[in-house]
Amino acid sequence: MPQKKILFIVGDFVEDYEVMVPFQMLSMVGHLCHAVCPDKSPGDYVLTAIHDFEGQQTYSEKPGHRFAINADFSNTRAEDYDALVLPGGRAPEYLRLDERVLQLVREFAEQEKPIAAICHGPQILTAAGVIGGRQCSCYPAVSPEITQSGGEYIAASHGFDNAHTHGNLVTAPAWPAHPAWMRQFLQLLGSQIQS
Length: 195
Description:
By secondary structure, this protein is an alpha/beta fold. 28% of the residues lie in helices and 26% in strands. It has one domain: 3-Layer(aba) Sandwich (Rossmann fold).
C-alpha cells in the first residue's frame, strides 16, 4: 500500500475522539498525517473537548487532551497532500471564519482529493462553498447549513454510527461512526488492510 499524505485542519476545542482516533488510525495503516492550525506552529498544541451523548437534548462537553500540531499551517498547500480530514467539535465554528482555511479547503475540493468531514466539520465545507449539489452527513444541528448551501443532508442513524460517501466526500454525524467513516475514507484512498 503506498503511503498517502493526509492533512488535518484543527483548532482549539476540536472534538477529542474525532481528531485523535482518526489521526492514530490513519497513521497505524501507514499514512503520514499532518495536523495544522492557523497561527500555531509545530510543537504547539490545541486543547480538545470530549462530547458525549448522555441523554440530554444535545451532547455534553468535557475537557479533553492536548493534541500536538506537527506541521506549519502557513506553509501548507493542497497540492502537497493526498487527502483532507476535517474533525468536528467547536473548532469548525470559528475556523470557518478564516479565509485562509476556506481557500485551502476549496483547493482540495477543486483538485477532487478525498475529503473526510465529521460532526461539525462540514460547517467548514459549507462556508467554503463546496457543498452545493453534494450529499453530506453531519451532526443534525448542522443540517440546516447543508441544505441552505445547496447540499442534500443525509440523516444520522439512531446510533450516529452511519457514514456517507458522495464522490470524493466522506461524511459522518459523530464519533460513533468512526468504523464506517474511516472504512469508507480508506476505500477512497485506495488503502488495503491485510488481515
